[in-house]
Amino acid sequence: MPPYAFFRNKYVPLAEAKIGILTHALHYGTACFDGIRGNWNEEEEQLFLFRVRDHYERMLKGCRILKIDLPYSIDELCQITVKLVEKSGYREDVYIRPVAYKSSEAIGVRLHDLEDDFFVIITTLPPYLDADKGVRCCTSSWRRIDDTMIPARGKITGVYVNSALAKTEANERGFDEAILLNFDGHVSEGSGENIFLVLGDKLVTPPSSDNILMGITRDTVIQVARNELNTETVERPIDRSELYIADEAFFTGTAAHVSPILEIDHRPIGNGKVGKVTKELQRLYFDVIKGKNQRYLHWCTPAYSKLVETKPSQVKD
Ligand code: PMP
Question: Buried-most residue among 15, 53, 78, 237 (CB within 10 A)?
Fold first, then answer.
């Protein structure tokens, strides 16, 4: 089975999904995307798409910011995605990338008077960070882009130049990942992950007003910690120095899963090993995303059974 893409309202082999070099989004970063995981459950021989609807709700919020108008409802976007996964037939973990973009082949910086389009691709993804061993981080010399510049709450392609600058700087300095501070010096997030600290018996994470992407893994961890560990998460501004004195720290993200942070700016976090709370949350999280915890099955859409029920679709095969 060749890898397929959903492109211009059809399922086509990936190699046939091409856009022109004048495409607006390529020149000006005028696109919104998302990243969705499909998690393979060996016992059930099933690929579970995790919180697919929540990912599309977030993408559509980004579309409102960018004035991108798609002809699909949320139900249809979910249906398109399930069908693409089913057609592709993977029996391993996959990563799904939907992109809504300004598709006009036109020069000129603006959001209005342009055509919009949408595609989805599916791929495998090598481990993004080492979730087993943990990661070493630095605070970045790059600051997180502010909502008054480009809203970070939308997963807007142009925003990712900010992340790319920070990630490459961190890697070139010998670290695994960067932690970006806001312009006022408070902690925002990693280049592609939200950050949590364990401080005493609480989890602490930056609030939406600190220029974070409102992560779906972040929300998953907040809910699972509350329900399963009786641990509340406090959303509040975090000082840089609190990073150094935390008992534990970890990143969350669709690509990064729950990844322990062992060191920040050459200071060990806690005892410099993967912490107890992080380990427990990681264990719970992996069960949840693989559809192994009944309580959270409503977040897992099976790709290899009947398609999710939706209204009649305008999508062509
Ligand atoms: N922040 C940024 C900048 C990201 O790119 C991501 C990855 N989507 C996240 C946080 C985590 O979000 P999620 O858990 O929804 O993947």
Answer: 78
Residue from 83, 155, 167, 290 carrying the catalytic annotation: 155
Q: CATH: 1.25.40.180, 3.40.50.2300, 3.20.10.10, 1.10.600.10. Which one for 135-274?
A: 3.20.10.10
CB 31 within 8 A of CB 23: no
CA of 15 to the centre of ligand 1 (A): 28
Amino acid letter, 100: A
Classified by CATH at the fold level, domain 4-126+297-308 comes out as D-amino Acid Aminotransferase; Chain A, domain 1 (3.30.470)
DSSP, res 12: E
Cβ of 194 less than 6 Å from ligand 1: yes
Question: Is 238 in a helix, a strand, or coil?
Answer: coil
What backbone phi and psi angles, to 5 degrees, belong to 108? 135, 120
Q: Are strands 36-41 and 267-268 parallel, antiparallel or unpaired?
A: unpaired
The dihedral formed by the CA atoms of 242, 266, 134 and 236, expressed in degrees to the nearest 10 = 10
pLDDT in tens, 197-253: 999 999 999 999 999 999 999 999 999 999 999 999 999 999 999 999 999 999 999
Most distant pair of Cα atoms in the chain: their distance? 56
User: Is the Cα torsion angle 181, 186, 192, 195 positive or negative in sign?
Assistant: positive
Question: Is 202 annotated in the active site?
Answer: no
Domain spans, the chain: 4-126+297-308, 135-274
